[in-house]
Structures are given as structure tokens and as C-alpha cells.
Amino acid sequence: MTDELKLYDPFQKMQFSDENCFLCGTDITIEQRTPVFGTWLQEKYGLQHKELLLLDKSVATFGELTIPCCDSCHTQYVIPLEKEVEQAAALGMVGLQQLDQKRLFQWIGKMYYGTLVTELIKETDPLIMPQNPISENNKMLGKFREFFKVLQSLRVPMVFSDFLPCSLFLLEVSPTEDELPFEYQDELTTMAFSIKLGSVSVVCTLLDNGIIGKALGRLYRLTQGQQLHPIQVAEFKARVFYAAYIFNAVPEYFERPLKPEDRYITMDTIIDDVTNEVFNPWVLTAYAHMLEEMLKPWGIREKEILANPQQPISFLVNEQAGFNPMERFKRLN
After folding, report:
1. How large is the angle between the packed helices 230-246 and 284-294, nearest 10 degrees?
2. How far apart (Å, rounded) are the C-alpha atoms in residues 29 and 155?
3. For 117-146, what is the mean pLDDT?
4. Taking Cα atoms as reference points, which of 323, 114, 115 lies closest to residue 223?
5. How far apart are CA 126 and CA 107, in angstroms?
6. Cα–Cα distance between 273 and 277 in angstroms, integer?
7. Residue ranges of the domains in the chain?
8. pLDDT for 65
9. Minimal CA–CA distance to 277: which of 204, 188, 187, 215?
């Protein structure tokens, strides 16, 4: 096996420090780093001084969030990826739809994993020790380990055999009452992620092999070709994030044995859907909590969401289960 086709496993020895490249593990100096959020993204949306709250309750700005990265990975893999997404995003929905989904997965995965690596490094010297440290949760570490195998497709030539490791949703936002050019949310434990780039919201569940995408396929198809009011985007995100919350499977990934002539790794996957249900039961009140959180900007509380106990409020879907066009939001009372 050539070094080019060899995967790096930082989880085996918990090799998370400022002196190892996050992507290949090479020893580096503490000055060798790459931004978690691309420089173009920070400049376009003025994020350099916007704050993020980390798990240890410390605060970092988007601009301060960097991860260890060797010069080779930075110039050969990270910069070309950021350039590709920047060019696609400049074309709006059309550009992002045309972008290879694998590249979009790598881009989102790099930001997600960069945040995770930051948390793992900070746990060695936290401001306040998190209640449930990631580094002590073997189940979560196993999940992240599987994720990092497929994220290395950014560095190692890799083909996914009839699957994409994630579910991706692209939503076009109506400009009428859209006041936020940029939004960002991630949920570290469920691996749900959303980012708004101008008029497009990208929502993703990072380690489900597309299962959540299939489960929400009918709803997603209703949104295609439509411009969504921001409150409708918030509802869609609530459904995706809740689906990620009840998702009860962790895909495993396996490299096919390499032949001398191989120029890439072929990755196969399995999900245990025999001994476990893929989804835990859908609980109405739990979903209502998630939806209430997403609808905070509009001041909609759980009481309104569950006014009909049999059917939670929806701004996306009408009573005939079709798409509900909405140009402006009107309060319910």
C-alpha cells in the first residue's frame, strides 16, 4: 500500500494536539494552521469577529477558530476545496446544485470536524470542564472515528461504493422577509449541520448514508423549485435536526483490499438495522421542543405549536399535505 492510499487514524492514540496535522497526522509547528471557516466565507459575511460558544463555555470568534494543518494539506487539499465552494456559492442555488455532492460533504465535514478537533484539544486544558467530555465518551468517539474515515476522501483518493455518507438538502430562501445573509448551526452529538449562504440554506446530516434524506424525501421534494420564507426554512431544519436526534444507527466503513494497480481506495459500508431500529420512536413533544427552538426569532412557543395535539403546527405544509406558499409571516393570533 502506498502512503498516498493510507488512512490516518488519530483516534487510536487520541492524537489531538496543535503539533499534528488534523488531516494527515504529520508533525508540524504550532504556527501551521488553517481556518475552520474559509477566509473567503469570513470576508464575504463579516464573520471574523462574530463569536461562537464552545462546549467548555469559552468564546471564540470565527476568525480565531483555526486547526493544525501541514503546508501540504493546506495548499493541496483545503485551499482548492474552499475555492471550489466559493465559486459555486457565488452562483447561488444553481452553482451549489451543480457542485459535486461529495465536495459539499467534504466542505461541511471539514468545518464540523474542525470544530470537533478544537473541542478535543481544549478538553486537555478547558476553561470549564464540559459536563460530558467528548474524549471520555467511547460511543461518540467511535462515531467520529467512522466519520473521519470518509472525510479523508478530501486527502486520499477514495470512491464511495453506491452511497454518500450524508444527507444534503439545499433550500432557496425568499428575499421578501429575509434579513440574515449568513446563519450557522451545528449539533456536535447528532452531527446535524446547517449554514446559510446568501439566498441558499444548506442543511446536512453528516453520518447517515443518506437515510434521513430518504425519510424526508417527500417533504424535500415539496420545497424544490420553491422560495421558502425564513420561518419555513426554520421548520425544515427542525425536522432534519430532530431526525438526526432520533437516528439510532452508526454506519461502519470498510476499505476494500487494495490491488497493486489501484489508484484509489474503494469504501464499502454497512448499517446494523437487524439488532437495532434505525430510528428511535418519534415523540411529538420532543419534536415540538426542537421546533420551538428553531422558531425563537418569531416568538412561537410550544403551546402554539401543539394547539392541535394530533398535528403540530406547520408553515411548510398545508392541510392537503401540499406545499404552503408564504411570502410574509403573519402571527397566528
Report:
1. 140
2. 20
3. 75
4. 323
5. 27
6. 6
7. 1-162, 166-247+283-333
8. 93
9. 215
What is the rounded distance in angstroms from the CA atom of residue 87 to the CA atom of residue 227? 22
Q: Per this entry, what is the length of the chain?
A: 333
Average pLDDT for 167-172: 98
Q: What is the mean pLDDT of residues 125-146?
A: 74
C-alpha triplet 230, 206, 322: angle, nearest 5°: 40
Contact 302, 288 (CB under 8 A): yes
pLDDT band at 313 (very low <50, low <70, confident <90, very high): very high
Beta partners for 252? 270
pTM: 0.93
Instruction: Specify which residues 68 forms β-bridges with.
Output: 33
Is the pLDDT at 258 greater than 50? The verdict is yes
Q: Is 312 in contact with 284 (CB distance < 8 Å)?
A: yes
Nearest to 191 by CA among 116, 289, 121, 281: 116
d(CA 62, CA 25): 24
